[in-house]
Amino acid sequence: MWKRDKKPVVGVFGFSGCAGDQLAILHMEDSTIDFFTSADIKFFHMAQSHQEVPKVDIALVEGSINTERQLKELKEIREMADVVVALGTCACYGGIQYLGEDVKTFKERMKYVYGESGEVPEFLDLVGKPRPAQPISEYIDVDIMIPGCPISAENFVPIYTKLISGLLPQKYPMPVCVECKYEGNDCFLLHGKYCLGPVTSAGCNAICPSMDISCVGCFGTYEGANYPSMINKLKEIGLTEEEAIRKLKLFGGNKIEQALKGD
Ligand code: SF4
Ligand code: SF4
Asked: Is the CB of 177 under 6 A from ligand 2?
């Protein structure tokens, strides 16, 4: 880690996604000023112009990897950074774009979009040859994951504060259901309604069930999750196994596949 007698150097990098996590940082209101003053921000994809990846203490990386060029840049970031943080559910688990893997093969999807040749038009070649969507952890070591679609200030600020103090924060050790119980909500599952709270990482304060909306799992996977049991529960309330897995993979991405294969 870096010396605490100087401000850490931070870079915010963006790959494929909606850029919502970078916007969430810019919209943290009072905390946005602290974000820019408590560290030396050397790179911020959405907020500054840049040429090369700088040497940073902390790299906050948003988005999944979808092209050869992104993969090259991601590896450069890993080489230049002491700590790499996956920012948001696309970077952590692949995001919604990862779901395409279920529908057609990558080659079929390319043909569907670009015609029989399946080749990207030349003018799009600037972004590099396409690859199937993958979370950043598929290619590099990731030190911290901050899921969320997008991340919330309540989740991000405490983790970031620890990081810039030279400490490595722990992952949330509980699912959304625990926060849901703290909020005193009546459980959807007990009423035969869909909810992914038991397999989703806490950190959002169970905002959806508290507003009478089922959790769809946007904070990503909870490490102690029991997926076979969740799938059985979803089947009990009327989903097919295929539908249940697809719902889990919406935000759980590659982690669901790994868990169901027993990896
Ligand atoms: S409503 Fe959802 S998040 Fe809340 S306890 Fe039930 S399953 Fe968990
Ligand atoms: S309750 Fe579930 S869907 Fe809603 S913000 Fe939290 S993790 Fe996302």
From this structure: no
Pairing of strands 56-62, 81-87: parallel
Q: What percent of the chain has pLDDT over 90?
A: 56
- Written as one string, the DSSP assignment of 206-251 is THHHHTT-----TT-B-TT--HHHHHHHHHHTT--HHHHHHHHHHH
Ligand 2 center to 21 CA (angstroms): 15
| Nearest ligand 2 atom to alpha carbon 205 | 6
User: How many separate domains does the chain show?
Assistant: 2
> How do beta strands 81-87 and 144-146 pair?
parallel
Looking at the structure, do residues 145 and 208 belong to the same domain, yes or no? no
CATH number, domain at 132? Answer: 3.40.50.700
Name the helix (H) or strand (E) containing 179.
Answer: helix 176-182
Task: Output the CA 13–ligand 1 centroid distance in Å.
Answer: 34
Ligand 2, closest atom to CA 203? 6
Question: Which domain-ending residue is among 130, 164, 198?
Answer: 164
Q: Residue 2 falls within a domain, yes or no?
A: no
Separation of 153 CA from ligand 1 center, angstroms?
22
**Domain of residue 69, residue span:** 9-164
In a domain, 89, yes or no: yes
The more confidently predicted of residues 76 and 36 is 76
Model confidence pLDDT, tens digit, residues 187-244: 999 999 999 999 999 988 999 999 999 999 998 888 889 999 999 999 999 999 999 9
Q: How far is CA 168 from the centre of its chain?
A: 18
Task: Identify residue 215 by its one-letter amino acid code.
Answer: C
